[in-house]
Amino acid sequence: MNRIKTVLILLGVVSISAIFINAVQSTNPVTVQNSVKEKNKDSLSLVQDYNVYALKIPDGINFAGERVPVEDPDVKERLDRELLVNTYWQSNGLLLIKRANKYFPIIEPILKAHGVPDDLKYIAVIESGLTQAVSPAGATGFWQLMKGTAREYGLEVNDNVDERYHIKKSTEVACKYLKKAKERFGTWTMAAAAYNAGQYGMAKQLERQEIEGYYNVLLGEETGRYVFRILAIKEILSHPNEYGFNFDEEDLYTHIPVNELPVDTVISDFPKFAKENGITYKTLKIHNPWLRETHLNNASKKQYYIEIPKKGYYPPLQ
Fold it and tell me: I need a surface site. Which of 22, 122, 198, 314 has the fewest CB within 10 A?
């Protein structure tokens, strides 16, 4: 019994000694200094791995072939702001690059067919981020069309069908609007600004200030930034690697090939219709967001074209 007590006492002494030694070491100047060095090393590594750079204004920057007067200090600062904001908003920038790979091949041929410069595709990017967005004011789709404008240019807009969500048809409306604005104001830069502010609003400001040209007129915050945002997005999406965006081709989103199925009758049940065509209702709505309800009224026997993805791009129905 006494032996056991002696052993236990010795073990206790050893444990206390070990704790004391560790405490001394933790306050040892050499040990503390090494710890600080390790922390500084980690901080230095962080600084070396992540840097924020001032950006150079690109030479010869233009919009739709129209020169940007960067020798104007105000123009230079406003362009610099948008380049910085969009370069260092990395997550959004990478998403835009991925979506552009998917949707630009749809938009570009329509612009070309209407004689609209390719640069105007970037309006859709800054308007909606190439998503089927809806603004607080009710502007809808890639091109953020209001109901009145959409209907004025021939789109169907109601609870059952809203063609502002139709990428091809809404792009055609945007082309018509931009061409009309170009005829009125004389430049594509002004047409782009009018897309945001409205033709009446732009004309009123030009008349009031007795001036011509987007870069000379004083505008509100949103329209004043509008063309500069387009220029920044154009520059970054045209030269992504130069602005620090790194990706492989397989990282980008791609458009799924489709067949266009003509329909001129009532469809009472889209989930059933989708299943009959070998896809889910979700897939049907992804490719045809302009179909707003689970059925198609079509009392007028109008012919619609419903996109059905080609086989092999989605998992087969279970």
Answer: 22
In total, how many domains does the chain have?
A: 3
Contact criterion met (CB below 8 Å) for 191 and 182: yes
Same domain, 267 and 221: no
**What does DSSP assign to residue 187?**
S
The three-class DSSP label of residue 318 is coil
Whether the CB-CB separation of 63 and 119 falls below 8 Å is answered with yes
CB 305 within 8 A of CB 166: no
What is the domain extent for residue 297? Answer: 258-309
Tell whether 135 is covered by a domain.
yes
Residue count of the chain, please give it.
Answer: 318
Contact 253, 292 (CB under 8 A): no
Based on the number of CB atoms within 10 Å of its own CB, is 182 exposed (0-12), middle (13-18) or buried (19 or more)? Answer: buried
Could you give the C-alpha distances from 250 to 87, 237, 291, in angstroms and in order?
A: 22, 17, 31
Rounded Cα distance, 10 and 6, in Å: 6
Determine what percent of the chain falls in helix, strand and coil, rounding each to the nearest 5.
Answer: 60, 10, 35
pLDDT tens digits for range 168-181: 999 999 999 999 99
Residue 145: strand, helix, or coil: strand
Q: Which two tokens stand for residue 298?
A: 């079509």
pLDDT tens profile 227-254: 999 999 999 999 999 999 999 999 999 9
